[in-house]
Amino acid sequence: MIISPKLSLLVLLIAAGLASPASSGETLGRPPEDPPGTIVTKMTPEVVQDAMDQQLRSKFEAAAGTSSNILTARQAKDAGWGLVADRFAKIDRDGDGFATFSEVQAFFDARSPVKQQRANTAAKAVQVIR
After folding, report:
1. What is the pLDDT of residues 55-95, one digit of tens each?
2. What is the pTM of this model?
C-alpha cells in the first residue's frame, strides 16, 4: 500500500498532537507541601538583599582565594565572574589594581533595586520646611 506524502504528514501531525503533554492530562500542578515543622521566612526586600549579599560574599571569597581579601581582574576572569572582570576599572575606585569586598559590594549596591527603592523612600520622607 502506497501512502501519499500529504496523508503521512497528516498522520504525523495527529500523532504529535496526541503525544503532547497538554493532551495527555499533565498539568503544572503545585509544588509539594513543606515538611511539618518547616519555618518559612517571609520574602521581603530585606531578606532578598541579605541573601544576595551572602551570595556576593561567597562569590568574592571563592574568586579572591583564601590568601587575601583582595580581588584582581584576572582572578575574577579565572573564576568565571565576567561581570566583575569586564567592569573592573569601575569597581576598583582607587585604581590600585585590586578590589576589596567593599568596592565590589558598593558596585553591586549601586545597581540594586532594593537599595534604590530605599533611597527613593528616604528621599520622599524628607520634609523641607521653609
Report:
1. 999 999 999 987 678 999 999 999 999 999 999 999 999 99
2. 0.60
Q: Please tell me whether residue 99 adopts helix, strand or coil conformation.
A: strand
With CA atoms as reference, report the closest residue to 63 among 9, 3, 104. 104
**Distance (Å, whole) CA 55 – CA 81:** 13
Closest CA to 99 of 127, 129, 125, 73: 73
Structural domains in the chain (count): 1
What's the CATH number where 112 sits?
Answer: 1.10.238.10
Structural domain range at position 116: 45-122
Burial label, 71 (beta-carbon count in 10 A; 0-12, 13-18, 19+): buried
